[in-house]
Amino acid sequence: MVTTSAGILLYRTDPDGKVSALVAHMGGPFWARKDEGAWSIPKGEFDPRSESARDAAAREFREELGVDPPDVPYVELGTFAYSSGSKKVTVFCGDGTGFLASDADRAALVFGEFEMEWPPRSGRRQSFPEIDRVAWMPLAEAGPRLVAGQRPALDALEVLLRQE
């Protein structure tokens, strides 16, 4: 069964013309000491029979970051399948210039949580943040840090911005 997800990829262009993306480091003990391949576009699962991808992307952004996505025009970048074939994610992008611009803005975020048994086979359940931090990163820096299945969204964003 294929899992369907949707997310929002915010970008901003610095005065020197460099494009950065807002990406989130995945939370929980598995990702705690990882960097490469441990970041994600704020996204989550949805049922396409009962919710549009765009609505799901906004809802998941809000659930994961604890704030509404900025009220800007969004463009659908596409739907990207993970190499495992078990997941596909529809990504929307928007200009996030000025959104979460300071370290204080990002530090004030309240991230959504999930619960799991930890340590494994201990019988104890613990809560962990879905993501533990967000950062604006230049696209070249964000690429290797994103999970592999989401990297094509950065390529699609670059193509879109070149056309504008």
UniProtKB/TrEMBL annotation:
State which residue ranges cross the membrane: none
What CDD domains does the record point to? NUDIX_Hydrolase
User: Which is a GO BP term held by this UniProt record?
Assistant: ATP biosynthetic process
Q: Give the InterPro entries listed for this entry.
A: NUDIX_hydrolase-like_dom_sf, NUDIX_hydrolase_dom, Nudix_hydrolase_domain
Q: Which PANTHER family match?
A: BIS(5'-NUCLEOSYL)-TETRAPHOSPHATASE [ASYMMETRICAL], DIADENOSINE 5,5-P1,P4-TETRAPHOSPHATE PYROPHOSPHOHYDROLASE MUTT
Q: What is this protein called?
A: DNA mismatch repair protein MutT
Which region is the signal sequence?
Answer: none
Which organism encodes this protein? Microbacterium aurum
